[in-house]
Amino acid sequence: MEMLFLLILCFFGTAILSSGQVGPWYSTPRKTVTLTSNRGHVFREEGVWNYTTMLLREDIGVLILGARETIFALDLTNITHKKAMVKWEVTPDNKKMCSYKGKNLETECQNYIRILHKMPDGRMYVCGTYAFSPTCDYMSYTEGNLILESKQHKGKGKCPFDPFQRYASEFVDGELYSATSMNFLGSEPVIMRSSNKTIRTDYYSSWLSDPKFIGMKYVAEGKENPEGDDDKIYLFFSETAMEYDSYNKMDVSRVARVCKGDMGGQRTLQKKWTSFLKAQLDCPVLQTKLPYIIQDVFLFCPGSWTTCVFYGIFTPQMDVLEYSAVCTYSIQSIREVFSEGRFKTLYNDESVFNKWVTYNGDVPEPRPGACINNDAREKRIFTSSDLPDKTLQFVREKPLMDEAVKPSPQQPLLVKKGTAFTRIVVASTTALDGSSHQVMFIGTASGSVLKAVNYDGKMVIIEEVQLFKPSEPVKILRLSNTTVSLRILLRLIFSSLKLHQVFIGSKLFLNLCAVPGTDPWSH
């Protein structure tokens, strides 16, 4: 019988950072802690499978956990305490229809909760795969009860059809931004904003070429912006490359962005993004020949939006496990590529494959892909529907930038051999001597969490916590500010580390506690 286990553990962080002279290329943990070396308490929930997503509701003190046909509300300060639960099951008719279309009745024709977002009014927006017929609803937590409002509506383009397909989403000012597939076969990728006026990517493969969506982040760049620029939604993904001479399929990592105020074009790009641009993300690891592929991203903003940094984790393609890496990208370096860089254009020649090459021609004004800013307003262009067709036609045909976004510094922040990184979160903390340090928590495919500290410009892995055996890959990491904890999700395990750390999967929830010492993350 499948069960959900919640295990609370504590560990000691005793690394002395003053001796940290480890470079990025040979990072190894200074201390390894296993499950058996910690005290634990177990929470069991019968009949629960496949934890898939979670939402921290620190405003009401609960953690919302989505699983297969089940949604939980757990006490944020005591995750062994289940405060509420609600079932959202697929109807027999929907299951039969899913099965008739060739999907597995027991594993695929279920409702996997994939999307959980807080709404401005305090309710939650929830979507599930619903037997390959994605469906969304509204949910509230009232007087200790989770309540689905039974206002179900189609989730096509918002939520994946496939319960095992990666996707990305953000909820901004009451509107859902999503990156997923639009059809049953998973062959029509889309980046979409669902609102009264839905906006989406165009259908061309030059926009999205067999993508694997990784993460979506909102940056309020319009706040106190001297250029009068707009807020942005950034999307991180990998896709099939069209800029290399290769007969074999090769993937590259990308960052794309759209403007929050984009309303589509008047004639060209009607109901389509006029601001969609993408660029390659470079994470150079040793002398590897193939580009490394992004697996997760975390947005860290110690101050205003101008200080924001994206932390990305990368692994090799072709399933060759050698090194995993962490690369960082400043918001300013990404903005510079999109606002000042050259474009690529598709080279069409019957003797060769279609290939992206540098575009050396004229670029129209206003600049293709730019948000509406002060310069545009001076030209009496107040919305995207005012943009001229020549600008829109250019960005429709040439959405890829010529220059790749380089990491800062010009090499990975951390590299580890023999371990596949899966997820990352980052925080800033103050050590006992008053110095400030950035702390990274990195989930791995072997079910462990690495704790690494940036000390005098060098990353030192000070601890590794091996969670469970047999191992399950870490699927989600979340930091809780109010409880100072890390939440961790695995496919079959849900866990929490107290400093905090939390793991989620469908069997187990773990909570590990750091004790005050020389480890800067110990208060």
Automatic annotation (TrEMBL):
Pfam families tied to this protein: Sema
GO molecular function: chemorepellent activity; semaphorin receptor binding
Signal peptide span: 1-20
GO cellular-component term (any): extracellular space
Domain named Sema: residues: 14-499
InterPro entries: Semap_dom, Semap_dom_sf, Semaphorin, WD40/YVTN_repeat-like_dom_sf
Biological process according to GO: axon guidance; negative regulation of transcription by RNA polymerase II; neural crest cell migration; ossification involved in bone maturation; positive regulation of cell migration; semaphorin-plexin signaling pathway
Keyword Ribonucleoprotein: no
Alphabetical keyword list: Glycoprotein, Signal
UniProt superkingdom: Eukaryota
Name of this chain's protein: Sema domain-containing protein
